Amino acid sequence: MSDNYEPQSAVGKWIDKRLPLISLFSGHLMQFPTPKNLNYWWTFGGILTFCLITQILTGLVLAMHYVADANLAFASVEHIMRDVNYGWLLRYMHATGASMFFIAVYIHMARSLFYGSYKEPRELIWIIGVFIFLLMVATAFMGYVLPWGQMSFWGATVITNLFSAVPFFGEAITNWLWGDYSVGSALLTRFFTLHYLMPFLIFGLVILHIWALHVPGNNNPEGIDVIKGQDTVPFHPHYVVKDVFALVVFMIVFAGFVFFSPNILGHSDNYIQANALQTPEHIVPEWYFLPFYAVLRAIPDKLGGVIAMVSAIAILAFIPWLDHSKVRSAKYRPLYKQFYWLLIFDFILLGYLGAQPATGIYLILGRLATLYYFLHFLLVMPLVGYIEKPKPLPKSISEPVLSNEEQQAKANLAT
Amino acid sequence: MGTDKNRSSEETKVTRRDFLYLTTGSFTAVGVGAVAWPFIVQMNPDASVKALASTEVDLSPIMPGQSISILWRGKPVFIRRRTPEEITEAQAVKEADLPDPETDEARVQKPEWLVMVGVCTHLGCIPLGNKGEYNGWFCPCHGSHYDTSGRIRKGPAPKNLEVPKYVFLDDNTIKIG
């Protein structure tokens, strides 16, 4: 179906013979056989592509007006907000866009976890995805430093100081990162350079991510292999329309934030210019880092905290082997399903705790939640694979839909 | 109500689907345009640039036969206090002899003061003063000659040197822009 596309026009044929670009796009974006039972959780891949392109385009435009120098950066951001034509809109799109990007990526990851999309033969898709997430974290963090407000400055100070936890070489590494003896212009300029570069690396990984996806094809809510032709529909128009509809709904929410409460997801302290002589009372990262921030603070040891925080992301890459159950979809895994929701709750709890002061009950809860986070992957996932008795899988993705009708028909016959 | 409309649209072969296609397409086009506009217009001169778009100049130190260059919108503006000879020379030129016909009276507010943007209308170089075959300005880049009124007389430039908008605030001060 996808392999034998023939362009009709003479120009199309001429180009396609030399560079089969039209066939490639037609095969992968038009005729690509897609399981017919994908639900709306599957639309977040397209939404994430939209987010990445939005960030690249608005970022490109902001970079035309931004100055990456410690003495000028804060003023140049205010210049964008006040003077540049539609600068306020473009900056709010970029800043809110980062939050929207993370909302979408967390949903996308949660969907993969629920439906077992990381399992054989899709392990590499998932691992590439973990790397994309890691790059997103780095990019978002560096981007938050650029406005050079109080939160930017002290966030950069705290995070770069994590590297001072490295034994023996800690100080040398931080000085190397800073290009100075503290956070300053040198760091700002290199962060700007890397912040500009990384989205393109992400873009490259996204292409690999989609390429790896298009080898086995999509997983689906039933988690069973599909029979090409019988269980699939062409990507266009079926999923193009579904994705676009979901995207439009997503854009409405996005626009709602941009136009009605662009600053609700940020911190007001970042509208105070960076001051190397005063730390804000409350240092909190952007909301999308809070769960990992809570993990960092839960460990009462400098190096241990850093290792735990890095491991919290790194551990995701090993999930395809930690969870060895052959059943993909949690729909047919009664036990795993309960732990899955416990993990989601745990992650949200960590996010809440990350925003609270690290004292008293918050600290105790933070430690418990951190403990469960790691236990879930290291202990629960492997064990559930042994203990659990999965529900019988349907023979095809059509069965769960048809079986209802059949049962009704049988019931009608019996009476 | 619905059935009547459907019947008539079947006759004219305009289907409900055609209508949806067109409305969706139109709304998409408007939406894309509305989103594209900020991305395009952000490159235009911004508010801080526009705020600097006028400059006041004190003319009192300039003697007849002297000229100064000041920076306005990033470009040089020549302000020359012309001698009576230069004024008569400029006024005596026949319009028919000019590539870009313009009277000297149209180019000045007070004959003594010639104010113009010092950018050659050929390719943007700055002409040199008191040079050229017409005692005015001469552009070293491609050899354009301007007269004592800043009008093009010879060479590749197509237009006279541009006269910016300006007003005399009093006898000794002008505001350009």
Detailed description of the structure:
The complex is a heterodimer of chains A (415) and B (177). Chain A has 415 residues and is mainly alpha-helical. Chain A has helices at residues 10-18, 21-30, 44-63, 73-82, 87-115, 123-145, 150-161, 170-178, 185-213, 235-260, 290-298, 302-314, 319-322, 334-354, 360-387, 399-414, and strands at residues 33-35, 232-234. Chain A has a two-stranded antiparallel sheet. The longest helix of chain A has 29 residues, at 87-115. Chain A is globular. Chain A starts with 9 loop residues before the first helix and ends with a helix. The model of chain A has no long low-confidence stretch (mean pLDDT 93). Chain B has 177 residues and is an alpha+beta fold. Chain B is 31% helix and 24% strand. In chain B, the strands form three sheets. Chain B has a four-stranded antiparallel beta sheet with strand order 5-6-7-8, with no helix packed on it. A three-stranded antiparallel beta sheet of chain B has the order 1-10-9, with no helix packed on it. In chain B, strands 2-3-4 form a three-stranded antiparallel beta sheet, with no helix packed on it. The radius of gyration of chain B is 28 Å and the shape is elongated. Chain B starts with a helix and ends with a strand. Chain A binds chain B through residues 57, 61, 64-65, 79, 82-87, 89-90, and chain B through 37-39, 41-44, 46-49.
